[in-house]
Amino acid sequence: MGVLERQTLISTAEDAVKAALKLGAKEAEAYAYEGQAISIGIELGQISKTNCIIDRGLGIRVLVNKAIGFAYTNILTDKAAIEGAVIGALSAAKASKPDPDWHGLPSMQSYRPAEGTFDQRIVELSPEDLVKVTATMLDVAPEVDKRVFPVEGGAGSGYWANAIVNSNGIAAYDRGTIVECSLAALAKEGSEVTPICFEFNITRDYRLNPEWVGREAAKLAVAALKPKPVETKTTRVILTQFALQDLLTYTFMNAIKADNVQRRQSPFKDKIGEQVASKSLTIYDDGLYPGGLRASQFDGEGVAHQKTPIIEKGVLKNFLYDNYTARKENRESSGNASRAGYLSVPGIDVTNFQIMPGRKSAEEMLSEVNDGLIIYYLQGAHSSNPVSGEFSVVANPAWIIKDGMIDHSCKGAMLAGNVFELLKNISVVGGNERQVGNLVAPWVIVENMRVIGK
Amino acid sequence: MKDFLNKLNSTAISLGAEYAEARALRLTKTSLTLKEEQVEAAKQGIESGVAVRVLVNGAWGFASAGSLEPVTLDNAVLSACRMAKLASTRLKIPIKLAPVKVIEDRVVAKPKKDPSHVSMEEKIQTALKINRSSIGFDSRVKSCGMDYLDLTGNSFFVNSEGTSIEQDKLYVWARITATARTNGVFTFSREEIGSTAGYELFDEQIPEELGKKVAARAVQQLTAKPPKGGKSPVVLGPNVVGVFVHEAFGHLAEADLALSGGLLASNMGKKIGSSLVTFYDDGTLLGSFGAFKYDDEGVPTQKTLLIKDGIVTGLMHNRDTANKFNTNPTGNARAEDFRVEPIIRMRCTYMAPQDQTLEELFEGIKFGYYFKSFRGGQASLDGTFQVGIQEGYEIINSEIGAPIRDASISGNTLETLHKVDAVGRDFVLDPGRCGKGQTAFICDGGPHIRLSEVVVGGSA
After folding, report:
1. Chain segment B217-238, per-residue pLDDT in tens
2. Which of A120, B258, B443, B450 could form a disulfide with B289 if both were Cys (CB 3.0 to 4.6 A apart)?
3. What is the pLDDT of residue B460?
4. Which CATH number is correct for B2-221, 3.30.2290.10, 3.30.70.360, 3.40.640.10, 3.30.460.10?
5. Are residues A241 and A363 in the same domain?
């Protein structure tokens, strides 16, 4: 199939919009997607599975009397199937209730390119290349230590294109690539098993370092051996990007979404301009972040991506808007409508959530902790109270820091607190920035963290 | 369709595969999102596609395409075989499948109310009723939400051994949320319902009652206080027991994870818990959210005993892991849809009830906690688990006391199963969704139980 062809995708979407208007829609928007992904997987320490997934589809959103209907189909070759989806969307809209707050689909935009989000080398990557990458990680990990056992992971690549066309004149097209490799390893000694320790590379251009991934995953697993219980106390902790991303995703990132603010589900309502976090914290949401995992020219409604200040030196600056919530307040969308593919309607989400780095290296950050913990991963962050920000989670694996050095791993440490208080207790923002999913951040040091041990 | 899929398998065999299977799926989905009596989105979707999976020289090749076009699918078979062959060059231990009976069957869903015959208007009305009863419950309820999904369609499974199965698929699911607020205190409450029987789910779960229940919990939590962190005796309700069984034990009993260094592979036949502990994973409970007749490898589902009286008796298997353990597959291989390959998933995982009354469970607890309803849970292969709590109470002198909020429990599975010192005679199952790369519709539950101690995470 002609994956990534601008004209095919745009005209598929255009046809759907035209059909919707002809059949009685007041407004219509179509999102067309095509993509292909291949991956090589590790099971029980060996390469034993391969995947190749081709997916495409069309989602159509229509408005009839201010009521929204949506339908999708993954049959794009058949005009009748697309028309069927249009009819489905129209009938859903007709069955639905009018929304008095609906003030139209977004209007025409001009776009800036998202740098570093497409690499032809990834499109041309062969499964052989990915097998090599995977084999390298598998070879390197046990060389670090014999007690290391690679559990899962592998390498994968993907490329896709999407188009958004609406009845207000938007006709946008973009494409992207991604490549990744990861290794999850644990270490075993006697009857002792460490938690899974995980490392990865993921980039929009072809830039993998499987030796590093294999080695780091193995090192972490070995370091997690021989854990000791931890004392219950209030202490200083370093949160790595994984832990930080987990904690913020289910709480803070929700609190800055305009729909939650408008629905009074955010503690940040009426707090723009107020000091809500430590002065050392500056955060942007940047849909154009070069090479960003979520960077592209436009959002799920065809609105141009932008860089939005969220927190500057601890002061709350902006919320994130899609077109609907923006029009409700008579302002412009911040380009934060997100789609989970063609099967979903757009909803507000962060793009690349960037915590601006400071200058301190990992070693310098460690040296500032006399007696505390460094937390790699959390278990249970998704069970946080999404509205109040209260959390009660397990740190696993985590290590005790003594006199500025990682001393030993600890088991079963629980952390309890409130994310919005935690933001005020960040004393140091490091310089070791990396991308983890929707977050671009360095390590941070948090004061007064409640740690519950045995 | 059967002939078409057979042809794909034949192509794979002619390309050197020792085993091939093809799955075709055609699904219709309806979903709704409501917030504060406003329909945010009414959605309808149709999707169809084919997945092929081949074993070449002991390595898996999988390819899927959202298409029924012969050319696209022939290419999919070709790339599956090519990639599997490539992977097999690095293979030390080739994958072999445990033998299973050849099956030819047609499984027909018999809903009292077929969700695909219920109009969008009626579904919206039901959802609105739930929303209305939440928001109207109390002025402190500030928001409410409802996500609804139904899925109907059929799946074909054909493999190169001669098995050929056509199954109807039917799921009805809803998630109801509410938040309440007063004096700067925010609370959040949620409930999920689900069925594989039909839209009659809403005759059993009265919409108005559901909305009220979720709202009442959010309001009650406003006066709740954070729990004291540290070890404490606890009584867990069926809803929390279910998640505990699923997260803390169930994942460890998935044979792929057990093989990946999980704790259970070395504990088969050993006593890892109190004699009161008996767990099942059961795919046969008709109508329950985790029920089906054949899994996505064409293996019949069953009621699998995992722990009997504290002794590990079985794991959940697919054909590959069953062969590795020299046992029979248990029908746990499930794929979310045609896009992805089947992996080992739970069905309905529960603890068997014993004979104690609720009063007996509370008896003798001077100070402890009663955790009634969960909010999320997670476990890791080393046996560390965490279960978040959305509704809990203090226990003071064997009586239920003041509500507490935002608690969680954590510990090591093997240590904690020994701490089960009383098990109730009641039994409740709740539907849920489980993430393991793919989403699976599952069910879990059990009776009320008591743990002599567990670590409670709380900020007080």
Report:
1. 999 999 999 898 899 999 999 9
2. B443
3. 60
4. 3.30.2290.10
5. yes
Using a CB-CB distance cutoff of 8 angstroms, which residues of chain B are in contact with residue A416? Answer: 226, 229, 408, 457-459
Range of the domain at A326: 227-454
Both A212 and A302 in one domain: the answer is: no
CB contact under 8 A, A387 and B405: no
Chain A nearest-CA distance from B355, in A, is: 32
Could you tell me if A294 lies within 8 Å of chain B, comparing CB atoms? Answer: no
The pLDDT of B378-400, averaged and rounded, is 92
Q: Residue A411 — pLDDT band, cuts 50, 70, 90? A: confident
Which residue from B minimizes the CA distance to A193?
B382
Whether this model's ipTM surpasses 0.85 comes out as: yes
**A186 close to B (CB below 8 A):** yes
Candidates B25, B31, B39: best to mutate against A (most CBs of A within 10 A) is B39
Task: Identify the band that residue B152 occupies on the pLDDT scale cut at 50, 70 and 90.
Answer: very high
A380 plus A233 within the same structural domain? yes
pLDDT band at A453 (very low <50, low <70, confident <90, very high): confident
In this prediction, residue A191 carries a pLDDT of: 80
On whether both A245 and A142 belong to a single domain, the answer is no
Q: Are residues A213 and A243 in the same domain?
A: no
Give the model confidence (pLDDT) of B32-70 as tens digits: 999 999 998 899 999 999 999 999 999 999 999 998 889
Using the 3D structure, point to which of A186, A221, A256 is the last residue of a domain. A221
Question: Do A151 and A266 share a domain, yes or no?
Answer: no
Which of chain A's residues have a Cβ under 8 Å away from the Cβ of B459? 390, 392, 416-418, 450
Cβ–Cβ contact A87 with B under 8 A? no
Picking from A221, A242, A264, the residue at the C-terminal end of a domain is A221
Could you write out the three-class secondary structure of chain A? CCCCCHHHHHHHHHHHHHHHHHCCCCEEEEEEEEEEEEEEEEECCEEEEEEEEEEEEEEEEEEECCEEEEEEECCCCCHHHHHHHHHHHHHHHHHCCCCCCCCCCCCCCCCCCCCCCCCHHHHCCCHHHHHHHHHHHHHHHHHHCCCEEEEEEEEEEEEEEEEEEECCCCEEEEEEEEEEEEEEEEEEECCEECCCEEEEEEECCCCCCHHHHHHHHHHHHHHCCCCEECCCEEEEEEECHHHHHHHHHCCHHHHCEHHHHHCCCCCCCCCCCCECCCCCCCEEEECCCCCCCCCCCECCCCCECCEEEEEECCEECCCECCHHHHHHCCCCCCCCEECCHHHCCCEECCCCEEECCCCECHHHHHHCCCEEEEECCEECHHHCCCCCCEEEEEECCEEEEECCEEEEEEECEEEEEEHHHHHHCEEEEECCCEEECCEEECCEEEEEEEEECC
The answer to whether residue A1 is domain-embedded is: no
pLDDT at position A1 over 50: no
The predicted pLDDT at position A181 comes to: 98
pLDDT (average), residues A214-229: 95
Task: Let me know if residue A232 belongs to a domain.
Answer: yes
- With CA atoms as reference, the chain A residue closest to B48 would be A74
The answer to whether the Cβ–Cβ distance between A44 and B79 falls below 8 Å is no
- Domain count for chain A, please give it: 2
**What digits encode the pLDDT tens for the residues A335-369?**
999 998 999 999 999 999 999 999 999 999 999 99
